[in-house]
């Protein structure tokens, strides 16, 4: 299972407010038929699932600002694809918390 952190930034919009774009992009995740888990943060979105599924979802998410009038979109992606054992966002957080409370 891969974990991806991504940030999608619409450029060339009529306003400096981007919350409607963010809401519309999050709808792609809510409606995704692929088996994924995701978490929106104030600066990015984390998604975990099969890497091929995640790439397809990211492509759909990247297109949303264009369909809402953005003239340019910048998407940044970081991928954590560990293959020696199963991991998840929750497992990674638990591992760090356990080490903090030793």
Automatic annotation (TrEMBL):
Residues covered by the Thiamine-binding protein domain: 5-97
Region called Disordered, residue ranges: 81-102
One Pfam short name: Thiamine_BP
Gene3D superfamilies for the chain: 3.30.70.930
Superkingdom, taxonomy of origin: Bacteria
Gene Ontology cellular component annotations, sorted alphabetically: cytosol
Family assignment from sequence similarity: Belongs to the UPF0045 family.
Name the UniProt record assigns to this protein: MTH1187 family thiamine-binding protein
Organism listed in the record: Paenibacillus foliorum
């Amino acid at each position: 299972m891969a974990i991806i952190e991504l940030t999608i930034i619409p450029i060339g919009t009529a306003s400096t407010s981007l919350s409607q774009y963010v809401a519309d992009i999050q709808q792609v995740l809510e409606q995704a038929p692929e088996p994924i888990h995701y978490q929106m943060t104030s600066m990015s979105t984390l998604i975990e699932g099969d890497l091929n599924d995640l790439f397809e979802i990211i492509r759909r998410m990247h297109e949303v600002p264009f369909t809402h009038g953005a003239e340019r979109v910048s998407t940044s992606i970081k991928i954590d694809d560990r293959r020696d054992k199963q991991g998840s966002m929750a497992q990674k957080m638990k591992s760090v918390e356990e080490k903090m409370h030793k």
